[in-house]
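Question (not urgent): is this output format expected?
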Amino acid sequence: MNIKLKQKMTVHKINLKKKILARWQIYLLLVFPLVYIIIFAYLPMTGLVIAFKDYSITRDIFESKWVGLENFNKFFHSYKFWQVLKNTLIISFYSLLVSFPIPVIFALILNAFPMKRYAKSIQTVTYVPHFISTVIMVGLIAQLLNYRTGIYGSLYSFITGGTAPNILASGPLFKHIYVWSGVWQNTGYNAIIYIAALAGIDPCLHEAAMIDGASRFQRIRYVDFPGILPTATILLILAAGNVMNIGYEKVLLMQNDLNINYSEIISTYVYKVGLASGITDFSLSTAISLFNSVINFLLLVSVNWLSKKISGSGIF
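Got this back:
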């Protein structure tokens, strides 16, 4: 039995070697991104050891004193811990619940739109905002929602005759402004992959449904939606695995002294602890970042497992 197994392994290795030699140009092209990933993604992971040390820029990383989980305990017992964790979870899941289904619905509606020429124009107009930089996007938000000179403030004064409330300084409204401005900016771009998946659905399915008397809505429900469900499942798993990684640039730019208790998230806290504070603590900021990555990893594995149990599809 062992001899047969060894023979099969030998044959498999020979076949694999032949395939690689036959397509060596393609494998050669893979070397460059592989080297890039190793240098910029895996080698920097050695620096994560800082999270378990009392690191100082005056000492070498591996010569610094080993403190174990002290930095994690310092973060967990900090008065900021529950605040930043709560804000991160609220904004993350709110953003996921809103920004994930809207592109799917938009793609289904656009695909079913009878006038294809206008549908293409709508698609172009909606994905253009994605290319607006974060700084410009926050500047637009500040200008539009300014309670004195913005469109919001001008309309409020015109209708009521009074001064509008400063919603940019309102903590409870921060998450709504952040999430819905992101929906406006990214819906069209995020819908592209679903539109591509819808284009791959066999037209014969629609023809058969029409012969059977299915309405437009029924074709969307029973043909289009099942056709993009595997794609949507994969993207949901990836989004869930990235749920704790809110873009700190936008949050940081939208922060002010009046909404800081509602807008301080793990990403911005790591930045302030590691770089922006008067006394930089690289070990603590690395520990917080590592904690954030572990939570993301657990969410990714959990959602993937749940998806495979329910739908039979997953990313691994």
